[in-house]
Amino acid sequence: MADSKSAKLLVEGKEIELPILSPTAGPDVLDIRKLYGQADVFTYDPGFTSTASCDSTITYIDGDKGELWYRGYPIEQLAAESHYLEVCYLLLYGELPTEAQLVDFETRVTRHTMVHEQMHNFFRGFRRDAHPMATMVGVVGAMSAFYHDSTDIADPLQREIASIRLIAKLPTIAAMAYKYSIGQPFVYPRNDLDYASNFLHMCFAVPAEPYNVDPALARAMDRIFTLHADHEQNASTSTVRLAGSSGANPFACIAAGIACLWGPAHGGANQACLEMLREIGSVDRIPEYIAKAKDKNDPFRLMGFGHRVYKNFDPRAKVMKESADEVLELLGVHNNPTLQVAKELERIALEDEYFVSKKLYPNVDFYSGIILEAMGFPTSMFTPIFALSRTVGWISQWKEMIGDPQNKIGRPRQLYVGADKRDYVDLDKR
Ligand code: ACO
């Protein structure tokens, strides 16, 4: 980052020079850190549409070109040639592992997949009909009560152990939340299975009969994990960073990220999208929903369409669409009404002037729900699967922040538009 370039800003006649920082890729960034001290003004940017909150070496997105890189590697290459645990290593440590490093990392993750036995009791405190995301927010937050030997953020070894624990245990916790919600016994992790197969096994096996994981489905599951692994400073990642900036422990920070991800404008969109496809129900009702989406007076939005950053296409959606075709072919799903609605909706929206002019394209959530449903997951499990996939991204960003000497507690300013200073009025005079 060279800061030889600068910009000049005139604030009520006073000239302020602002350094311009140049990134490896992407637009230059105006450095306004000293602006308040020099000019006594704040900047105003609700939703952070023009604000970089940190510098980061992990993930890069070019929204116009539809590019996504993890540590410089394009997502398409990683999705085709790598696998989730290798991608986790890359995100956490910055480079692709050697064979020995990969074996060591996989062993460490695999050896941490079980959760504290007492956690089973903790699960039983939840209502059976609780949404698995509600259970996950609670259980992941409670990890700091079970694993307090890895909550000292000043100790690099504890940070490392907490990272491995989170990556290893999130699939177990997500599967337990699912099993609990359907009244089936918890299935313990199996260390002879790879990460994705183990997750499918914990979700779909029952003690009464053997369950063999289809390797093609495990591969599709692994790809879903890989495509969701990180996405730079999105809402949930920024939440993790903000929570972590106060020195909160990693389990508490990841629980905060899970809470933020749950919203339908973010990770909850995959569930909302499939529910919308089911609600539309048949191809002939699509025009009605397209009209609702365009109507300014109707809050309805086409779920699974649009993205804050991608304004051309979502590269994850491209890979996910191919994966969806493969999985549906494998499972022999051809005439499923949800799928028919999805295909037709996509076709119409991609040609419709409203969606084209606003650059609204199908995002990753549009296709992921179709695959997950075909695999047998209920819609309520879609966002927990996103959460477990994103955990490595959150923890990598959290580790990067803790190790950054510039790290300060996150504390945005505001534009106060409330009442001016006034005197208290006694109750009998109001
Ligand atoms: N359906 C209909 N219109 C839409 C949609 C949509 N899905 N998304 C955006 N628009 C319209 C808005 O009404 C707005 O129109 P206007 O300019 O006439 O007011 C314009 O497009 C821009 O929308 P914004 O909300 O300003 O865009 P923003 O970048 O803030 O929002 C978001 C991005 C939240 C993803 C939005 O597109 C949306 O709500 N999509 C549906 C939910 C969804 O699929 N979320 C998943 C995102 S991907 C992820 O988290 C993994």
TrEMBL record:
Pathway: Carbohydrate metabolism; tricarboxylic acid cycle; isocitrate from oxaloacetate: step 1/2. GO terms for molecular function: citrate synthase activity. CDD domains: EcCS_like (cd06114). SUPFAM superfamilies: Citrate synthase (SSF48256). Gene3D superfamilies: 2.20.28.60, Citrate Synthase, domain 1, Cytochrome P450-Terp, domain 2. GO terms for cellular component: cytoplasm. Pfam families: Citrate_synt. It catalyses: oxaloacetate + acetyl-CoA + H2O = citrate + CoA + H(+). GO terms for biological process: tricarboxylic acid cycle. PANTHER family: CITRATE SYNTHASE (PTHR42871). Belongs to the citrate synthase family. This is Citrate synthase. It comes from Paracoccus aestuariivivens. The gene is gltA.
